Amino acid sequence: MKQSLEDEFTAFVAERGQALLRIAHALTGDRESAQDLVQGALAKAYARWPRIHSDAEAYVRKIIYNDRASAWRRSARRNEVFVADVPDRAAERHHDQDVTDRLAVRDALLSLPARQRAVLVLRYLEDRSVDETAEALGCRPGTVASQASRALAKLRDMVGDRMTSVGGAR
Amino acid sequence: MRDLEKTLRDAVHDLADDAPHAFDLAGAARTQGRRIRRRRHAAAGAFALVLLSGVTVPYAWLRQMPQTPVVQPAPVEPSPTVTAGRSATQLPNFSIKEPYRLPGDAVVTMITIPSTVIVDGAETSGPNTYLSLDRGAAGYRKLPFDRSLAAMSPDSDVLAVSPDGERFAAEASRNQIVVLDARGRRLDTLNVDAYSRVGGDPVWSPDGSRLLIPTEDGFAVYETSTRKLREFQDPGIEPRCSDLCSFSWLPNGREFAVPREDLNEPRGEDIPDRIESVAVYSADTGARVRIIPMKGVPVGNQAWLPDGGSVLIREEQGIRVVDAVTGVPRGKLMAGPKAIYLSDGRILGYGSSFAQLYAADGTLLEEFRMPAQFAAEMTVEVARN
Prior knowledge:
- The complex is a heterodimer.
- By secondary structure, chain A is mainly α.
- Chain A has helices spanning 3-28, 31-47, 49-52, 56-74, 76-81, 97-110, 114-124, 130-137, 141-159.
- By secondary structure, chain B is mainly β.
- Chain B has helices at 4-17, 25-45, 237-240; strands at residues 49-50, 56-57, 89-90, 101-102, 106-113, 116-119, 122-125, 129-134, 139-142, 159-161, 167-173, 176-181, 186-191, 203-204, 210-215, 218-223, 228-233, 248-249, 255-261, 275-282, 288-293, 297-298, 310-314, 319-323, 338-341, 347-350, 354-358, 364-369, 379-384.
- The radius of gyration of chain B is 22 Å and the shape is globular.
- The relative contact order of chain B is 0.14.
- The model of chain B is unreliable at 41-85, 117-124 and 147-155 (pLDDT under 50).
- Chain B: Keywords: Membrane, Transmembrane, Transmembrane helix.
């Protein structure tokens, strides 16, 4: 690969690596898995850098989301029976209510299927529109909408009765 | 008072904030990325020799041999060398003035000569040179598809050739495939979200009437007679397509096969993806019509026996004949990286260095050494005459 492209790859990772790790950690909830996910995606990008460098971030993000979904499918059975260990609010009384709610939602979020979690990360971390989310995940906008709806319904089921207010949930 | 969505947004940001700090991501990705490139390179070009006993002889990574002089050769990683397992018959020299025929009434249809030089340890790629069989003139012509004509993307190295050698498809820019004639004239421009940048390349149907283009959301079919492009949605194709994601047409010219990765197998960047099956789609309706269990990827359009009874697939160790309906292996492991069915039902395995003639069950009949003019890094395409 040309030296200029090598330099461009290095600069891209330096500039965007941390942002990609944030996405990966939101998807996995695990530091090691997040690093593996990002490193794998960057490796694939490097292997095709001359062809994808003009749109590298979209390419890498797409791999991150798709690889995460694939990883989930491989262990789908395990994930399907996993039930979120939602913190007992009684044990958290000394915490601020907001923090308690956030912890509950965070744990519930990590128990969702990877595809649904990916939709929520794209929508709530990256503030992507439905269309943009669909493009990133390689599915139709309608699928994004239904996955988001199901994910929110699950979260509501898991943590709704533990939160002081879920009136605004939709 | 907080609602669920507000709390969810905070929770997602909390999770992101807990991400580890990036440490030498670029270096680690480079190492891993080079492994991926080597693997793809080896799969595409290396010629694994398989002895009759089924033992695989180590194969060589292709070395860069420049079209232009090497400025400063960089040290290459230690690599095993190809060993011709038995006495191989030397084939005559290649000449552009006549079709180059191979045993079993096959003919070389295309030669791609890369021009990659290594300067200060970094690969620098120039435009490929393409020599294509001109059946009318009974010789080879150099195609005028270099980057100066802007017919192809500067980053593109994909050139799909129609069976008659008269039409070519190349990626001109992102989301744009151009159809060209042998003189470099654009016959059509297809604006489609092509998938080629991550693996699948366009492929012409056996009769050259259709061009299949893997896309981000499924696939598209271009009809040469009507110049219409039909796009079909199946977002499930891309995530399950393997590293060696290549589509191939079935002999009927109306269906094509797509490999499907085995999701139950462990996955790593240093090992090839495992294949569990191929899905067969109808190019007429876009519908998936059946799934055939098999452990490898069909090695191109001519990998399918014309009667549709069996197919040649690439497994990790070589190429094998399997039943095209059940996927059950029907023969011995053969050398690769490419193979075609000959018109008499025998099989020709070939690379740029060797060719091997096999019986229908994969028994090696004879081995040939390709002309020395075909340097190891060249890509040679072969078809039934």
